[in-house]
């Protein structure tokens, strides 16, 4: 009996492995899987992040913050809150995102020194996020429907895709290429190209680990290949499915942070 069960299990696992190994051929399907893997792990999540910003002259700055995220449904609208704790000149700054799949995202930035909630316009989504080489859009992700997608190559490890913006006037790039891990579907490298065909910006996933069954990027690097400088971001104390309620993602949380959801040990 045990032998029969082992044989059946072997057949099932073998079939599953063969299915997993079979490469996808539809570019849109690959992008959708990558979007879910990168931004929708779990029903919600919490992590602490630390940025090291290095400019073209080698001068360094640090940013430390906590991110809360909530997904009402996989692939649908999302909510993000980013609370800055260090250094002192950005402490208390809060970034709130209401991500929409059918229209422009709503973004706000709270500046504690002025006690001001500033709305970030859609036209500013691809500008510097708190002085780093990341953009506001990088925090919550770019919608797959904003670009066309072409599968360029499939290797043993990656899907290589090329993307072109549908509204070219709304972005600074002419196209970009993404290397997506075939096993985890996490984007491992993105290179942005300008109108002259030159790669001017690169985003890399340097380290990946598994948390609660979800493959998760724990270290990334953005490089400004045109002007020089980099921003490295490390993630730690990563948690998923912690039950963050919807009412946490509101303007009042920007002025009065929800301490119970920001603490590591709740």
Q: What does this entry show, briefly?
A:
It contains 5 helices and 13 strands.
Order of helices and strands: HHEEEEEEHEEEEEEEHH
Query: How many structural domains in the coordinates?
Result: 1
Distance N to C terminus: 47 Å
Q: What would you say the CATH architecture is?
A: Clam
Number of strand segments? 13
Fraction of residues in helix: 10-25%
Care to describe what's here?
The protein is an alpha+beta fold and 266 residues long. The protein has a single domain (24-262), classed as Lipoprotein localisation LolA/LolB/LppX (outer membrane lipoprotein receptor (LolB), chain A, Clam). Helices cover 18% and strands 42% of the residues. The chain is built from 5 helices and 13 strands. The chain has helices spanning 2-21, 27-39, 136-140, 251-255, 259-262, and strands at residues 44-54, 60-70, 78-86, 94-99, 106-111, 116-120, 147-154, 158-165, 175-181, 187-193, 199-211, 214-224, 230-240. It is globular.
